[in-house]
Structures are given as C-alpha cells and as structure tokens.
C-alpha cells in the first residue's frame, strides 16, 4: 500500500515542474518516486541540485555501488530497484557485481574500499574509525573524494528515507532481497 499518491502532471507544483520535466525527458518517463517527491518543491529541487552536483563525483560504477549498498542497509526496496536497474543499464555492471555491491563489496579493489567505507558510514551514522578513513586513502582516494563518498551516502539515504516513508508504487523491475541471494 502506498502512503501517498504520485502527482499527475497537472498536480505538480509550478516550482517543481521544470525539474520534474527535466528528469522525465532524460529518463523517458516520470518515476513515481520523483512524482511523489515533487510535492515539496523545496525538498525536491534541493535534492535534484545535490544529485546534479554529485553526478560529477567518482565514476558511475562507484556511485551506483554506493547507492546499492546504502539502499540495502536502509531497507529501501524502491531505491534497490532503481539502483539495480541503473547499475545494469547505465553503468553496465554485470548481475554478480550488482549483488556484490548490495552486500558491501566489489571485485575491483579500489571500488571495494569505497563500498566498504560507504557501508561503514551508513551503519555507524558517520562514526567511522581512523583506520576506516586510512583504508580509503590507501586505496588511492583523497580527502575530497572521501567527502564526496559521505555526501553520496547522505544523498542516497535521503531518497531511501523519502521512499521508505511515502512508499511510492514500484515502477522499476523488482529485485530479490540480498539475504536471499
């Protein structure tokens, strides 16, 4: 059961419309999560600005892997469907890499360090150890990159929380819970 209904195009607040129209054009349809989120122009446009800025951070496989592990930890089934879809179709990640990312790992050692760190940041609410930070540095990441990882964790957590609270109807292919994989 959804807790709120996604807005129809004529219900979208004027201040959300340009942002929502941009996503619809780029994606090819309007995801229910965005049509729900658009109810608050302030929150929706702030998130869209953050998403746009962070789309320049790291590489697409790493960003999608962070989205997968964060969504798995936060129990956001909607975001898991979205990130699994984008990881496969946009980042061109094979199915086994998507599952591995959801479990907090990657076959690529550099990406594995990021995913493990993102997992720790999410689970510990940012209370990571000096050794955790050093492990990411040792993998070749700068402090600026580490800040980007934390910002991505926060951004993905925001959409996880919005979707967990409002439970929009799923409009991406369903995924199996990682514990069952």
How would you describe this protein?
There is one protein chain. By secondary structure, the protein is mainly α. The chain folds into 2 domains: 41 residues, no CATH class; 117 residues, AhpD-like (Up-down Bundle). The chain is built from 9 helices and no strands. Helix 3 packs antiparallel against helix 9. The radius of gyration is 16 Å and the shape is globular. The two termini are 25 Å apart. This is Carboxymuconolactone decarboxylase family protein. It comes from Herminiimonas glaciei. It holds the Pfam family CMD.
Question: How much helix, percentage-wise, in residues?
Answer: 55-70%
Beta-strand fraction estimate: under 5%
| Sheet having the most strands | none
SS content category: mainly alpha
Key terms:
181 residues; mainly alpha; AhpD-like
Short description:
With 181 residues, the chain is an all-alpha fold. The protein has nine helices and no strands. Helix 7 packs antiparallel against helix 8.
Compile the SSE list and pairings:
Elements: H1 17-27, H2 32-37, H3 41-54, H4 60-73, H5 77-89, H6 95-102, H7 109-123, H8 130-138, H9 143-166
Helix pairs in contact: 3-9, 4-5, 4-7, 4-9, 7-8, 7-9
InterPro entries: AhpD-like, AhpD_core, CMD-like, Uncharacterised_peroxidase-rel
Domain Carboxymuconolactone decarboxylase-like: 44-104
Organism: Herminiimonas glaciei
